[in-house]
Design brief:
Keywords: Membrane, Transmembrane, Transmembrane helix. It is found in: Membrane. Its main location: membrane. By secondary structure, the protein is mostly helical. The chain is about 80% helix and about 0% strand.
């Protein structure tokens, strides 16, 4: 993939979408980890914690990009992305972040870096897949994620609350990335190249399964919740 080609820009667009929908949780983690620090240290902890987290994430992503070149691992990586895409569309309201707020600058810094590294594995895998082995795209993707994580948590959450379709677009982007990873795996690339329609069919199948299935599951959950509320009211 060369710079300034359609493949480059499509990969960049996918990474921006992935960052947008996956950065919210990481931003919340960082805010919670620094919440007990004095005001004058909070911004410093957020800045250096994010800097360290991005450095760790870059190292992890570079390793994943290398590993995905091995036969079979693109297939596995694509399969692992599908539940990530599905879980984006689960709005059960029972998610909690078990993050211990640091009382000192260094404890907050350690919490931010470790928690972000653990929670950022989905982001690492998604960006590595969307970059298709292009380290330049990985670097750009991580540079985009910094302002989103540091300054964008409130904006991201408000946007998603106001425009829920953003989550479906993001989930669809992850499912599309998964389909492309599966289609470009060393074991399957020859077959997909010989059957040009198959890659597009897989794209549509996985994106449709995640987005339409997620929408239907959300409607069922809403119906069950409404039914339970009605029973409780009349009971």
């Amino acid at each position: 993939m060369d710079f300034f080609t359609p493949d480059f820009f499509s990969g960049l667009l996918a990474i921006v979408l992935l960052d947008l929908v996956l950065a919210g949780d990481n931003a919340i983690v960082i805010a919670m980890a620094a919440s007990r620090l004095p005001k004058e240290l909070q911004k410093k902890a957020v800045f250096w914690g994010t800097f360290g987290a991005v450095a760790v994430r870059f190292a992890l992503t570079a390793v994943v990009v290398y590993l995905l070149k091995l036969p079979g691992l693109m297939l596995v990586g694509g399969a692992l992305l599908l539940p990530i895409a599905w879980n984006l569309l689960r709005h059960d309201g029972d998610e909690s972040h078990e993050i211990k707020a640091g009382r000192t600058f260094w404890s907050a810094l350690r919490t931010i870096i470790v928690a972000d590294a653990l929670m950022g594995l989905d982001n690492v895998l998604a960006i590595a897949g969307a970059s298709r082995g292009h380290l330049g795209l990985v670097i750009i993707g991580l540079l985009i994620s910094v302002p989103l994580v540091v300054w964008g948590s409130t904006l991201i959450l408000k946007l998603i609350e106001r425009f829920p379709i953003i989550m479906y677009v993001g989930a669809g982007a992850i499912a599309f990335t998964a389909a492309r990873m599966i289609g470009h795996d060393h074991w399957l690339a020859g077959w997909f190249a010989a059957h040009g329609w198959a890659q597009y069919a897989l794209d549509v199948l996985l994106v449709g399964a995640v987005c339409v299935g997620g929408w239907l599951a959300q409607r069922r959950r809403a119906a069950r919740s409404a039914s339970a509320s009605k029973v409780a009211t009349h009971g």
